[in-house]
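Incident log, structure service

09:12 report received: a user says their structure output differs between two submissions of the same chain.
09:20 pulled the input from the user's history:
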Amino acid sequence: MSERIDEQQQPPEDALAARMEAQRGAGSALAGALRELGAVDRAVYQAVADTPTPQLDRHIRRLSNSANNSRLWLGIAGAIAVLGRERGRRAALEGVLAIGATSAAVNLGIKPVARRRRPDRAPSTSHGARFVSMPRSTSFPSGHAASAFAFAYAVGRHLPGLAVPIRLLAGGVAYSRVHTGVHYPGDVAIGSILGAGTAAIVAAASDGLSRSHNRE
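09:34 re-ran on a clean worker, output below:
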């Protein structure tokens, strides 16, 4: 029983490393690498948290909040659908579908399994302007980052002129989750990769359906 409690109190990467060492022996290189990656992840988070950025904090906090429940991306999708003609409507639809698929994969499939705790964000009077509400869900991976890059992938492939700015905006949203103290850098990095990967699967399915429709 005590071993289970100790494992729950550890970061999940350390708990996973401990289980790997129990199976492969204390000298497991993979377990050591996993622990080191976790340490680097937490150190980068702390470096961002300790760096005062009073001119940026308010703007980054607003950017982070604008992406809650994918409001930012749904708003952009609406504008693209109205102004972008047929290609814009297809980009908007695929972008929304990519967000839906990504959100389901992250929130229903990965977060309940990974169970990484949110960062222990210490109160700070000097950095308080950057804080957003701490979500109740687990930390890994970042749903904001995943949805951002899923949408950016879908829009960028249909509207190349928007590919760079939409990815820069997605990157800003992903970083904002670290800056505001609600995610570790590793959460947003893996979330971004998962989002883009899920969007690629949605895109392949969409292309397949289009080809089938054109044959009929």
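09:41 both user submissions now match this output. Likely a transient worker issue. Closing.
09:42 reviewer note: The domain at 53-215 is CATH 1.10.606.20 (Vanadium-containing Chloroperoxidase; domain 2). The chain has a mean pLDDT of 88.
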